[in-house]
Amino acid sequence: KKFLHLNNPKTLNEKILYLCLKTDTSLWTTCADKYAVRGYVEGKGLNDILIPLVGVWERATDIEFDKLPDEFVLKANHGSGDIVVVTDKNKLDWQLYLMQPVIPDLRHLH
To answer: What CA–CA distance (Å, rounded) separates 58 from 75?
Structure first.
């Protein structure tokens, strides 16, 4: 058996458990949410460090692509690494793109 050393955590698991048990975790959910954390940052008076937000949509099918700038980045709020970098929106067939269950390369579309 291995015992946890929460008074002097060494392993990653011990450090995470220490933080969960011994610190204020009330902001963790807000800070993990890409959209909600913007409100927190603004509330701290740090608006100038935020990247301009073009829009927020519930579903990809709600996006009005013709109103987006020629170059932009789409980021899902619920994941990590789920981004679409668009360098020229006029070269994409958005209807075809939205119908795909999985896009092989979401990293850089142009």
So the answer is: 12
